[in-house]
Amino acid sequence: MTDAGIGARMLRKEDDRYMRGRGRFVADIRLPGMQDVAFVRSPLAHARILSIKIPPTLRDRVMIAADLEGVRPIRADTTLPGFKSSTQSALADDKVRHVGELVAMCIAPTRAEAEDIAAEIEIEFEELPAVVDMLQGRQPGAALLHEPWGDNLFLTSVTDVSNGTPPANAAYEVTRELRTARQVMSPMEGRGVVAEWDSRVEQLVVHTATQQPHIVRSGLAECLGIDEGQVRVIAPDVGGGFGYKGILLPEEVALGFATRKLGVPLRWIEDRRENLVAGADCREHHYLLTAYADANGRLLGLDCEASVDCGAYSAYPFSACLEGGQIGSLLPGLYDFPHYRCRVHSVATNKPPILPYRGVARTGACFAIEVTLDALAREIGIEPVALRMNSLVQPEQMPFDNIAKRHFDSGNYPEALRRAIEAIDLDGVRTRQKTGEPDGRRIGLGFALYTEQAGHGTSVYSAWGIPMVPGHEQCQARFTPDGGLEIRIGAHSHGQGLETTLSQVAHQILGVPHDRIKVLHGDTAISPYSTGTWGSRCMIMSGGAVAKACEALAGRLKHIGAKLLQTDAANVRLEGGAVVGPTSRIEVAEIARTWYRRPQDLPADVDPRGLEVTEGYKAERDTGTFSYAAHACLLAVDPVTGEVELLDYVIVEDGGVLVNPMIVDGQIQGGTAQGIGTALYEEMRYDERGQPLASTLSDYLLPGPTEVPAARILHMETPSPYTRFGQKGIGEGGAIAPPAAITNAINDALAPLGAELLMSPITPRRIVEAIAAAQHTQTPEAAE
Fold first, then answer.
1. Could you tell me the pTM of the whole model?
2. Measuring CA to CA, which of 22, 54, 345, 780 is 20 to 30 A from 469?
């Protein structure tokens, strides 16, 4: 380790431009002759389109489905047996399946004028019954979104590791019905697209706020019926993604077609109403979960029936069963037990497609098992942490294949829990609860644990049969003639600090000063192919690729440097940004100048490929790394008003070797804020006709600084045996456990009142109603 290499708490290089307002986002792009786009969106959740009337004077400024000649619908399939395919037209042609679906595209010199045109278009609909609830959608006789299916199930996934009966030695069992609300992802920057047709090179150039430039290029080429070489996708600075910007947009397809036809650049910038209503939904799950334990308080098994509300379509490259398909493998968590059955239904409803959100499926699965484990502990009459300690995978079992065939690479789960117990002062809290609070509030303590699978690759995704299978992640690294280092990667940074952490990797190996290292990404014309940024994979995969490329450059530097130092290559080493020999040294920058400008001084056997390399990387085992954490939450609940105050929050996390602990802390704090939103505030509700009941941020609640405490983060570093530096993915973890930990703390506070909450978000109203319901069911003697 150096003071600026692996493990250094180095300030983020990219923040200088962000803090000075010099970032460049899609909305900052201005092209000559550019026109703005506004879309006419469906006001109904489920309806047939009978007619579209466009004033004749505006017809040349409006496009509908019939105008998109040769454009194919978006199709995002899997080869998993039983999966039913959906097709989504860029502009709806026969019927609409959710409020906000695109129907017409209006083009004008400004967004305001385009919206005025949109207001002039009249659409006649035949409204159809809407499927608003996933459980309703599974029932016989429910309205059908896609008539040829015969039902509303994208897929039913089954995991069964049992003998068909509950565990024979189960002394205790509990069953809980749990539900997570539908959320809307709310990055600071919404989506945005600027598209132009470059007639000089016959190429569609699309500037878009995306996490996956190469995947978007493939999807656009497929839908528009052109070669991928005719599509260039550029992702500039991106103001937050979280999975929301990890798909192909119908807006990208529509603008891609229209700019080529009209010959002018086009721009669409999503406003917050579009964000809330039309396409950022996630995390709506339902669980019926039974947990079993033996007489000693050890978990024996789980039986689960789950449903995921997938919305109307599968988004490209794949979204419909991404959550449902993973629940079966995620639900067992960090625990070792012998009996497991899980059936998950991925249900189509008249809502926008559900998209992968930070923690994809893990947040819901963690919520289900961890809240149920607390209920099981109360049934047994033991501390919830005791049940967990009895059931966790032990460090001496690592690496460990769990009951769902997940290969845990390394870690010490009991130690993480022990540290969380100590930091939150479990014994002190229990004493405080017996004393009571002077203000009448009730104190509660909750724990939750999870694993985060990250960096999983070819062997995992090829089994899913989807159009996005990661292979070797590549890095192109080269020296400039004056000794600067350029690193080109296919992944994209939208807040993770990759320009800093990948610079740290390069500095660790080559010793080049950070101000001479430039990380380039986000442009399919200059970056190697990549499936992009998702699944906490960047430091594992891109970090490994950067290391391999820099090591290859290091070998070439030493060979040239040895010749210039008039010694043998075996006598030199690379140190501090220079090749060092027995009696002298030569700077890397001088070696670069020699290669480019003084080739006559090079050794005769110099590598003709020079100081530019492309190297690929895969983890030694590509089933993924498993970071993990124990979260502990102390809070106070006002039983009269239902208000919740978070008093203390402790996170003990293990992300393997931390490349930049400061950035890791920021990732965890940010994820925790989003998890608090899931637990207490965020909910997109719909009425019986499928109308969203929040269209502004005054209706859809997001946590702010006063609602998010500064979590106390304690680090463990158990290296992964499979990655280049022992690093594990860490980007999603902070968002996974807070709903479970906070719910368990609330239920702990309310247990003496007989109240229990099993749905997120836990709002003040739900708390008051749960207390009232518990008091109503109690006998008069118990109520007193």
1. 0.97
2. 345
